[in-house]
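2024-03-11 09:14:02 INFO receiving multi-entity request
2024-03-11 09:14:02 INFO entity count = two
2024-03-11 09:14:03 INFO echoing inputs for audit
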Amino acid sequence: MIKNILNLGDAAVYCDFGKDVNQEININVINYFQNIKDKKIEGITNITPSYNKLIVSFDLEVTSYSKVKKIIENLELEKKFEKENKLIEIPVCCEKDFKLDNDRLEKKLGITYDKILEIFFSKEYFCYMTGFIAGMPFLGDVSEKLRVKRLETPRVKVPKGSVGLTEQFCNIYTYESPGGWNIIGNTPLEIFNKENRSEPALINPGDKVKFNKITKEEYDKIKR
Amino acid sequence: MTKLKDNYFEIKRAGINTTFQDNGRKNLNHIGIPISGAMDKRNFMLANALLKNEINTPVIEFAYQGPLLEFNGDRIYFVITGDVKFEIIKNNTEKIAGLPYNVYVIENKDQIDIQSTNKSVYGYLSISENIILDEIWDSVSINTKAKIGSNNGEKLSDNQKIKINHKNRNIALTKLNYIDKKIEYIRVIKATNFDYFSEKAKEVFFKEEFKVTKLSDRMGMRIEGQILENVVSTNIKSEGLVKGVVQVPSDGNPIIMFADHGTIGGYPKIANVISADFDKLAQMTPGATIKFKEVNLEEAEKLFKFYNLETTNLINQIS
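2024-03-11 09:21:47 INFO inference complete, emitting structure
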């Protein structure tokens, strides 16, 4: 549940779900997100869920902090979230040219790359949020055996499709972008497609993701 | 007069960062798409109001140096807003110095040369006819970082054409006397991580001056001054961002989020610029000094009402 509601500037409501990051809290955040979204509250310009916060921005010409806060406080939550929960399979190629941080990961984790991949591909991940850049999913939780910090010096360009690791999370670079995550492989799938106007992001908060290891040959076939 | 088939501007010089903008796109932050839209909302609105356009009609936004455009077609009206130096070139020879907030008429082969913004960043060019543009998610606004919006999400480039749907509107050659006032302070509300900062840093933030750096664009503005010391943590769990939020990364120099900001971020938030001051902040050039002043929510809401009233009064002055 929401622990605290504050204003962020004069045109946003900041809902704080506490300090912890886990799926239970995040599902709560997503549930609020869905419920507020479906209520189509007048003047709302954005609802931004994250691990344990939800920020509701509004047009100050139309409504105000006290009005939106009251609506959120009195919201009758319906459980909409579970129905939409789906499993998405993402093929990832971890062969040379794609595994940019092979050496770094082996060194930091003290295990072979094969072992790293075995652990990485052995579980399902949960999408906590999407964002930063269009459609980028933040997935968790990565096995405790694979937890590494982000690069000391971020890359100026991370190739599109790169799958990265940082601490308890993994992500997918939907575009070429600057970034500091440890790159384990690359997916040939379009994770964000702006031509699909109603559902441009393949992975959305609350979805489950299963990565499947593929060869370079299979990668090229999908890419074509 | 025979009607010309195609009406368009040919871009002879695109300028530094010339894009199409409107009010931006809503309710897409959760998939990583920011609001975008005109950086200086008042000047955007005045550009359309002066031509009696719908208030959210797409305009051309330019920064520092604007475009040089050659018009091809039947006569149209245009207006430029902001503190902008520009000329109208008739028949390739006669040059007329232009004044912002004045409606002009141009004919086939006339040129508009937008030379620079004076001690400000953004200016707007609006025309009496519709520019033919693709909308994506109810907005033409170009976000060059995400490659979203009209013109394939790219800024305008040399030799490109801007196509116009000509409806032959007749517009009064009106003008508005408006000079943007300089401001002493950028007013802010303390944000959610204000207490992450040392007592000294809190004092510095409201007492000392900060300088706008060159690392400023439609995504955000980096400013520098005395380092703001963080005594709790220089990282927070990534969470949503809003326009105007002042984040402080580990180097202690603040970054203020603008229209094309990343939708989530993990730096502590020290303060949030109030809505009434967004336009003025966006117009501050590298090297300019900023002083922050704290206001509370109630004051911020009143100041926004006043800002809106001022804009409405300006629009009402247009005959």
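2024-03-11 09:21:48 INFO post-check: The mean pLDDT of chain B is 95.
2024-03-11 09:21:48 INFO post-check: The two ends of chain B are 29 Å apart (CA to CA).
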